[in-house]
């Protein structure tokens, strides 16, 4: 991506909840129009980092910049248009149809009554996620996986420059995980930057362009950055005995010991 300014740059970022320091002087650059995956064990700080990038947690130490502009200097409306964030928990409280929920993604743009343009954009977002058939269903009556897809469509209706997704595949069945990751890849090709926390290193290596590894609130850098699926490196990230089996120019990761 030589020559392109980083979509997000993180410099010496530290963060603590009260006295508890959970991120220690992180430095990272997120490439534009790539799918960057954040990997690491539970509790290592992935969600905290994503929320900081989304501007949802106030940071005191270090800096986060979007295409060179400091996050702190962006007002709320600029952030809402730039950044689409999907957290781990979204409550199923909307007493709305899917079409209406997706239209609320336009709230950064819509004053009182949505314009024709907003309704069109919301419709396109449903098409992109392949859920137009759910448009008139009630959000609260959908499965967890379908609700997740509605939330992604809602984010797309927002037309952000960057999507920040915390475990977006959690409620999805295997094929829908594949569909969602393929969709995210397509979005990057259409000039959207996507950062996703994923639990599954296999999904990460099948679809990711770039990877951020975290452990105990710090970033771990692989010895060979172009081949982060190195067995020893991944064992140190996950503290688990793992095999890295070459597959499709990358690797599949499986446990070394399988109890049956
Ligand atoms: P991950 O997403 O990698 O599982 P988190 O970013 O959620 O990790 O958490 C990192 C650390 O911060 C954990 O030790 C967690 O207990 C702590 N933590 C997360 N959220 C809060 C919070 N709201 N208040 C206090 N501590 C928190």
Notes on the protein architecture:
- This protein has about 260 residues and is of the alpha/beta class.
- The protein has one domain (about 10-220): Rossmann fold (3-Layer(aba) Sandwich), CATH 3.40.50.
- The protein contains 8 helices and 12 strands.
- The strands form 3 sheets. Strands 6-7-8-3-9-10 form a 6-stranded mixed beta sheet, sandwiched between helices.
- The model has no long low-confidence stretch (mean pLDDT about 90).
- Adenosine-5'-diphosphate (ADP) binds near residues 20 and 40.
- How many whole angstroms does the radius of gyration measure? 19 Å
Major beta sheet summary = 6 strands, mixed
Structural class: alpha/beta
Query: Regions with pLDDT < 50 over 5+ consecutive residues?
Result: none
Distinct helical segment count: 8
Number of domains: 1
> Which descriptor suits the 3D outline?
globular
What is the CATH fold-level name? Answer: Rossmann fold
Q: So, the CATH homologous superfamily? A: P-loop containing nucleotide triphosphate hydrolases
Report the helical percentage: 25-40%
The average pLDDT value, as a whole number, equals: 92
- Gap between N and C termini, in Å? 45 Å
CATH architecture, please? 3-Layer(aba) Sandwich
Query: In total, how many beta strands?
Result: 12
What is the beta-strand fraction?
A: 25-35%
CATH class designation = Alpha Beta
The string of secondary-structure elements, in order, is: EEEHEEHEHHHEHEHEEHEE
């Amino acid at each position: 991506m030589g020559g392109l300014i980083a979509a997000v740059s993180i410099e010496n970022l530290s963060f603590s909840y009260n006295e508890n320091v959970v991120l220690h002087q992180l430095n990272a650059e997120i490439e534009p129009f790539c799918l960057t995956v954040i990997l690491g064990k539970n509790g290592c700080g992935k969600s905290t980092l994503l929320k900081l990038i989304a501007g949802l947690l106030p940071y005191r130490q270090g800096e986060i910049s979007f295409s060179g502009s400091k996050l702190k200097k962006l007002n709320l409306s600029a952030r809402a248009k730039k950044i689409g964030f999907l957290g781990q928990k979204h409550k199923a409280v909307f007493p709305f149809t899917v079409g209406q929920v997706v239209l609320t993604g336009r709230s950064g743009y819509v004053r009182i009554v949505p314009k024709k343009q907003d309704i069109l954009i919301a419709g396109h977002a449903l098409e992109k996620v392949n859920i137009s058939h759910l448009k008139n269903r009630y959000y609260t009556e959908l499965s967890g996986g379908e609700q997740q897809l509605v939330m992604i469509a809602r984010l797309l209706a927002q037309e952000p420059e960057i999507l920040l997704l915390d475990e977006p595949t959690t409620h999805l069945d295997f094929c829908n995980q594949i569909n969602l990751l393929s969709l995210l890849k397509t979005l990057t090709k259409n000039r959207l930057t996507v950062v996703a926390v994923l639990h599954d290193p296999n999904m990460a290596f099948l679809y990711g362009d770039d990877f951020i590894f975290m452990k105990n609130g710090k970033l771990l850098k692989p010895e060979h950055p172009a081949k982060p699926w190195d067995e020893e490196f991944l064992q140190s990230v996950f503290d688990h005995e793992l095999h890295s089996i070459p597959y499709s120019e990358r690797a599949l990761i499986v446990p070394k010991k399988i109890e049956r």
